[in-house]
Amino acid sequence: MSVAVDDVTEAALGLPEYQRASLASTLLGSLDDPADDPAEVHAAWTDQIGSRLDDLISGRVKGLSLEQMKASSAAALAAARR
Fold first, then answer.
1. Residue 16 DSSP symbol
2. How far is the CA of 80 from the CAs of 7, 30, 43, 68, in angstroms?
3. pLDDT digits over 22-72, tens only?
């Protein structure tokens, strides 16, 4: 990293957590494609959420309990470490 980036990083890490989160959000947002229309992105996410909710309600897919998800994640992590 350049000296300037190191200085900014050090200063940012000295901020309170809520300010670091806000800064991170702003920086990540700056990487978005400016051609993406926020209204179109919102509509696409709304459609996706509706579709997934319909799948759950209709029974086409089955949700997992938190315990099942934790167990599945732990098993996948253990397998990846082998």
1. -
2. 36, 33, 36, 18
3. 999 999 988 877 777 889 889 999 999 999 999 999 999 999 999 999 999
Spatial contact of 15 and 23, defined as CB atoms under 8 Å apart: yes
How many Å apart are CA 64 and CA 58, to the nearest integer?
15
Q: How many domains does the chain have?
A: 1
Q: Which domain range does residue 63 map to?
A: 3-81
70 exposed, middle or buried (CB, 10 Å; 0-12, 13-18, 19+)? exposed
**pTM exceeds 0.90 for this model:** no
**Separation between Cα atoms, residue 5 and residue 54, nearest integer Å:** 46
